[in-house]
Amino acid sequence: MAMRSLISERVSCRSSVLGARWMSSWWRNVEPAAKDPILGVTEAFLADPSPDKVNVGVGAYRDDNGKPVVLECVREAERRIAGTANMEYLPMGGSVKMVEETLKLAYGDNSEFIKDKRIAAVQSLSGTGACRLFADFQNRFHPDSQIYIPVPTWSNHHNIWRDAHVTQRTFHYYHPGTKGLDFAALMDDIKNAPNGSFFLLHACAHNPTGVDPSEEQWKEISYQIKAKGHFPFFDMAYQGFASGDPERDAKAIRIFLKDGHLLGLAQSYAKNMGLYGQRVGCLSVLCEDEKQAVAVKSQLQQLARPMYSNPPVHGALIVSTILGDAELKKLWLKEVQGMADRIIGMRTALRENLEKLGSPLSWKHITNQIGMFCYSGLTPEQVDRLTDEYHIYMTRNGRISMAGVTTGNVGYLANAIHEVTKSA
Ligand code: KET
What keywords are annotated for this sequence in UniProt (predicted)? Predict the structure, then answer.
């Protein structure tokens, strides 16, 4: 008996030494992850003690004093919600009311697709969550499919479809020479992709280039995508930021709907309602009929359940309170226009400042491009100099978030850009 317990003690002692060794090596092969090209810029900005520092990195709207903005319509909605709404779980698909209002913004108030219940839609964790949910859905039901992504694109698109295990291909979009759309190459890529491919399109205010197809070009893109039997997936993170009017910014979607596409769509309230941290958005998939939409929605919910169970309630309440009230919606539309106008004003100011400094380069593209960003053409080395010598923070692809430019910093920014580019 005693002998046996001695042996078992020794064995357990040996196994615990082995166990300890195992445990200490569990994370030994974990290397630090690469910094995120966008959110890493914010981290670096926050760590810089310089009083002159300027953050034109992340796409987040600031007022003319460089301060984050909470819209008046949001403040009012919060007042109305306070003390009245409960904090129960939402259904897996999120707030039905919020989703309904969100679909109207994209598909139109009187959309036949909404009436016919052909849209499978769920509340998502903002635009990122909508893209990711779709990518997972694509992988689950078309595991051998690929996604065609524009060059360039929002850097996180690549991470999203990579982590969803979907093979990525690219298509031409931006022409560095003209600083505009490379339309001919784009159309060729659509034609040359295998029939029935997935295409990721920015619905408006393309990030990072600020270059959108014209209405005529959208029609041709839609025609060709249909002819090839491709599936268009729209990421619409900036509805309202291109023209100042969310209805006008839905133009591309409406063209595709008119042409009879089935499509996928990611919507976000981060930018156009300033609800960045609330993480409220919507993923929708237009289906052939109601039965299919019910099935697709149930599968989207089943993807959500083991990931985050159900989406957060507060942001959804804010959105449904605003969009469900005619007066608050009107105020929202006015405030969206106001944000877009301030950005447009800053484009003019930045260009004028550079021209006044006698810059030998053309800066026309600053005012030609639309939305939140200016794809400046600055090289990674020039961006590094802006950061090192002037404490100006932006992504290394030369993207300037115009939403971070103010009357107070535009002169400083222009001067620094001039200094690093004048001998180029
Ligand atoms: N799509 C695009 C094209 C996009 O630019 C962003 C955010 C998102 C989706 C996601 O936004 P969300 O907050 O998940 O609704 N872009 C800015 C912030 C970021 O990188 O997360 C940016 O480009 O700075």
Answer: Aminotransferase, Transferase
Which residue shows structure tokens 């595991």? Answer: 143
Whose CA is closest to atom 16 on ligand 1? 59
How far, in Å, from the CA of 68 to the mean position of ligand 1? Answer: 16
What is the per-residue pLDDT across 121-162, written as a single tens digit (0 to 9) for each? 999 999 999 999 999 999 999 999 999 999 999 999 999 999
Q: What digits encode the pLDDT tens for the residues 56-68?
A: 999 999 999 999 9
C-beta neighbour count of 175 within 10 angstroms: 16
Global model pTM greater than 0.90 = yes
Measure Cα distances from 342 to 63, 204, 280, 371, 402 in Å. 8, 18, 24, 11, 9
For Cα atoms 215, 378, 32, give the angle at the middle one, nearest 5 degrees: 105
Taking residue 311's Cβ as centre, other Cβ atoms within 10 Å add up to 26
Q: Report residue 94 as tokens.
A: 């999120």
Residues with CB under 6 A from ligand 1: 38, 58-59, 126-128, 154, 156, 202, 207, 235, 237, 268, 270, 276, 281
Do residues 99 and 282 lie in contact, with contact meaning Cβ atoms separated by under 8 Å?
yes
**Nearest C-alpha neighbor of 59 from the set 206, 250, 271:** 271
